[in-house]
Amino acid sequence: xxxxxxxxxxxxxxxxxxxxxxxxxxxxxxxxxxxxxxxxxxxxxxxxxxxxxxxxxxxxxxxxxxxxxxxxxxxxxxxxxxxxxxxxxxxxxxxxxxxxxxxxxxxxxxxxxxxxxxxxxxxxxxxxxxxxxxxxxxxxxxxxxxxxxxxxxxxxxxxxxxxxxxxxxxxxxxxxxxxxxxxxxxxxxxxxxxxxxxxxxxxxxxxxxxxxxxxxxxxxxxxxxxxxxxxxxxxxxxxxxxxxxxxxxxxxxxxxxxxxxxxxxxxxxxxxxxxxxxxxxxxxxxxxxxxxxxxxxxxxxxxxxxxxxxxxxxxxxxxxxxxxxxxxxxxxxxxxxxxxxxxxxxxxxxxxxxxxxxxxxxxxxxxxxxxxxxxxxxxxxxxxxxxxxxxxxxxxxxxxxxxxxxxxxxxxxxxxxxx
Length: 419
What we know:
Elements: H1 2-8, H2 13-33, H3 35-41, H4 46-66, H5 71-75, H6 77-94, E1 96-98, E2 101-107, E3 110-112, H7 114-132, H8 144-161, H9 165-181, H10 186-225, H11 240-247, H12 250-257, H13 277-287, H14 313-346, H15 350-374, H16 393-418
Antiparallel strand pairs: 1-2, 2-3
Helix pairs in contact: 2-4, 2-14, 4-16, 6-7, 7-8, 7-9, 7-15, 8-9, 9-15, 10-11, 10-12, 13-14, 14-15, 14-16, 15-16
């Protein structure tokens, strides 16, 4: 019996331990944090059953994926690129809106987020290019490798960024790190960094400028309703419909970027508004947690946080499990990163090493972003805590990432035995 279980859970035991602990934390905390969903459905078991089903499907996906030899992942790259670009274009035109942005595709019986598939596809693509273009003298990647990577990754990143900027930034950050690990010439990396800094500055200026025009358009509508048509503004009302379609996300980005402006307001003058509502209640959850927390299921702020089971689940974990729980969750992601780095170091070929590290960086970077937002150390982005937050597509895809990492660990282990 033990042998059969061992054959089922093949691969690195450390990765499996981290994965199963995160799944266990996810089941407990999502059930606790789903009070708003329970209120809407009038069934306290419904959110738990749904999430438990997603976790079980994810574990099955991980087991199936880890049994696929790593060399076969190369073969599906062209197909995954085709699916990625087709679905990213589809969601922009016919996608369903979530939180004011077209992010999901509605299919009979379920929805899925193309950006989740795109992240893994871009990492797979970059790993294949960077591994294939390593120079024979072991001095790193050929200078032309960066051009090929950017040619395939940048368009996908732009398509994602139109509706989900934080995911686009996350993805490009991972690809940038992969190029650094693949030893793309530092001169090229320096030039790319300079271009990125310049583009970031231009983007910030554009966001605030277009958000200002959008606000003036709103003021025009209000003025016309009050009969004050003599007011002069820069945006013509008749063009506002087309303008909104082009710039509807700029106002959101501007509010998030400028969301820290009330930091120095005295406590007695502080007001909870729509802009700081989630952050305020996340801060309250953390401030009232203590060392050991209130205990699983005893959160108070879950009833006020609309995304307690997703974007702000780390705040609920801290409230219920205290400082020990917060550190434990961070420690699990740290173990995941270092175990994968050790596995990558044992790989005989560059492709599985780059692929495993890229997928792990996706999970770890996203976890860092989510936790920073939850403790009010970053801009609200809407990034869930991977393998912990409630999700559909994201849960299953993240489990598939774990399966790929475990598949790489199996090949690395075989190499270690032959040495």
